[in-house]
Design a protein that fits this description.
16% strand, Rossmann fold, binds ligand TPW, six-stranded parallel sheet, binds adenosine-5'-diphosphate, 3 domains, binds magnesium ion, globular
Length: 586
């Protein structure tokens, strides 16, 4: 141990001793110095006092009921603010609970830092059975972008700086910071401590694309007859909203927003091709990817949905060079940050730019008109029990009337149908299950969205999806957050009509308690609970909640037979790969 880090018993210190600080305060000061003023976590040994002291020092410390939701909150805070969200957990089990969120953040390219207390190194390394013993650093490493452990208080400043830079620079992601119990109580001279802190300068430096690469991209684009731009959540994260809109409008190219890029331009924009999705994917000849990976969500850029092999050329904008050619050949890789890349393209799209051929635009228009009119008929139904379209038609109007509200969305049918039906009007207003299609982000995302933006939040949740994080409605009530949760209650996963094929006493594996009243859970914590059986009742309850800002849960009674297996992605079920249509039993 260095001289600086030596633990000094405070009661032995003479009155004239120089001012001192400790590991607790240095962590808090390092976060503050870097503008990180909110912590999402769960208290316990050894970090209870870190949370207390952070609150005493003016940070906002939001205590959750389970670390996974605190972690999800930190991750989405990172997405919304371009600053790493901070999650604080206790050792071993608390750390593991937070780890799912850290891995999910990394997968989704959200910047966050999981700070976890840990047991004593000497005991952990000899496996002598410490309280909550676990080699957390080793476990975190493969699941995040970077992982660090701090042993000396005077290294805290550098460690926090490294964590921030690792989370934000290049492709953003999750970082793990291991803080053993002993570190927190280490005492050091206050002046030395202060000088050891580091303010990170320019943590996400602009990455300017090469001129050759820009020219190549423009050449490919100029040769296009049926161009398409796909906006991904990287484009939403980049906060280059004005330039992205200018690029689309100046080029006249139709665009398709991925789920969390919806609202980057209003979904009602004339160039939005969402309502003609399958047509544009199949028929486009040049596709510009802006912060969107060619992963499963885009059928890996190949196969039937992309038209005949070799019928496409791709231009890809991404900050991560290794993303290029990950699934198919990229004709024009444009490596850099989205702001710089889009600005560079925009600089080349001047007065003489040829808009795409009108035949392409008209074909898309015709398909959009067709699909939108088919959908419109289904949205107005005021039936009871509700089907998904009737209920979502009501919520679509709620969001249209409140375009700055944030929509959180998870489930299967509840997710896929809400994505298609609820138009978004502003950037970064739609937060959902992301790259993994993970259930359980709901309440964590809703809480952080309310805390970070101060805007009302509408969480549209499948009844199964809600169950993963449902206990956090106590957190919503405790902090009096303007969150309205709508549980699409169809008595189960995908639908509530499956039966046990053996005829035995156990219900089917996808079925829940019939006619459960989730609204009463909210009432238990002092919030507003409403049971809604028609779209009109649903609309009234949600409008009132969004306008009052009172924590509300609406139990929306959905026909248990209305959903389909796995929502839109039934084809990914292994049974369907061998030619059997996935079908609910019963
Ligand atoms: P979606 O799920 O919406 O299709 P993905 O998560 O697959 O989006 O893709 C996001 C991509 O955006 C990632 O490949 C990531 O490297 C990239 N990205 C994130 N931030 C930036 C940025 N500031 N500049 C450039 N690329 C970025
Ligand atoms: C962490 C698998 C995908 S969708 C879903 C599950 C359990 C729930 C669907 O039912 P829900 O929606 O929410 O009631 P609806 O409208 O279709 O009835 N565990 C994790 N992530 C995933 N994706 C699953 C399980 C799953
Ligand atoms: Mg359900």
């Amino acid at each position: 141990m260095s001289a600086l880090a030596e633990v000094i018993e405070t009661e032995d210190a003479p009155d004239t001793a120089p001012a001192q600080t400790d590991g607790f305060h240095l962590i808090i000061d390092a976060l503050k110095l870097n503008g990180l003023t909110t912590i999402y976590g769960v208290p316990g040994i050894p970090i209870t006092d870190l949370g207390r002291l952070a609150q005493a020092e003016g940070l906002r410390v939001i205590s959750f009921r389970h670390e996974q939701h605190a972690g999800n909150a930190a991750a989405i805070a990172g997405f919304l603010t371009k600053k790493p969200g901070i999650c604080l957990t206790v050792s071993a089990p608390g750390f593991l609970n937070g780890l799912t969120a850290l891995a999910n953040a990394t997968t989704n390219c959200f910047p966050m830092i999981l700070i976890s207390g840990s047991s004593e190194r000497e005991i952990v390394d000899l496996q002598q059975g410490d309280y909550e013993e676990m080699d957390q650093l080793a476990i975190a490493k493969p699941l995040c972008k970077a992982a660090f452990r701090v042993l000396h208080a005077e290294d805290i400043g550098i460690a926090v700086a490294r964590a921030i830079r690792a989370a934000l620079s290049g492709r953003p992601g999750g970082v793990y910071l291991d803080v053993p119990a002993k570190l927190l109580s280490q005492v050091v001279d206050a002046g030395l401590g202060e000088r050891s802190l580091v303010k990170v300068i320019d943590p996400a430096p602009a990455q300017i694309p090469g001129t050759e690469a820009v020219k190549r991209a423009i050449d490919v684009l100029k040769g296009a007859e049926r161009p398409l731009i796909i906006l991904g959540k990287g484009a939403a994260y980049a906060q280059a909203d004005d330039d992205i809109r200018s690029l689309i409008e100046a080029s006249g190219i139709p665009y398709l927003p991925m789920s969390m890029a919806k609202g980057l331009l209003p979904d009602t924009h004339s160039q939005c091709a969402s309502a003609a999705r399958s047509l544009v994917l199949k028929d486009a000849d040049v596709v510009v990817l802006v912060g969107a990976r060619l992963n499963w969500l885009l059928s890996h850029g190949k196969g039937k949905s992309w038209g005949p092999p070799g019928s496409k050329r791709f231009i890809q904008i991404d900050i991560e060079p290794r993303e290029m050619d990950s699934n198919v050949e990229i004709a024009a890789p444009l490596v850099g940050d989205i702001g710089s890349c889009v600005a560079a393209l925009l600089g080349k799209i001047g007065a003489g730019w040829q808009a795409p051929p009108s035949a392409w635009i008209e074909t898309i228009e015709a398909r959009k008109r067709d699909n939108l009119s088919k959908m419109a008929g289904r949205l107005g139904k005021n039936s009871s029990p509700m089907d998904f379209h009737g209920a979502l038609g009501a919520l679509r109007q709620i969001v249209k009337d409140r375009p700055d509200a944030i929509l959180v969305n998870e489930g299967a049918n509840t997710l896929d149908l809400a994505r298609g039906i609820i138009d978004m009007y502003q950037p970064r207003k739609r937060l959902d299950v992301g790259t993994w299609g993970i259930m359980g982000i709901g309440m964590g995302f809703a809480i952080a969205a309310a805390i970070e933006t101060g805007k009302p939040v509408l969480a549209v949740e499948g009844d199964s999806a809600f169950g993963f994080s449902g206990m956090e409605i106590e957190t919503i009530c405790r902090y009096r957050l303007p969150v309205c949760v709508v549980v699409f209650n169809n008595n189960g996963i995908y639908r509530g009509t499956d039966v046990n094929p053996t005829g035995g006493a156990d219900v089917a594996t996808t079925v829940f308690v019939e006619n459960a009243r989730y609204d009463r859970m909210m009432e238990a914590f002092g919030g507003v609970g409403v049971n809604a059986t028609t779209p009109d009742e649903l609309a009234r309850a949600v409008a009132e909640a969004m306008d009052s800002g009172r924590p509300t849960l609406v139990n929306a009674v959905i026909d248990p037979a209305a959903g389909t297996e796995s929502g839109n992605i039934g084809k990914l079920n292994p049974q369907s790969a061998v030619g059997k249509k996935p079908k609910a039993v019963g």
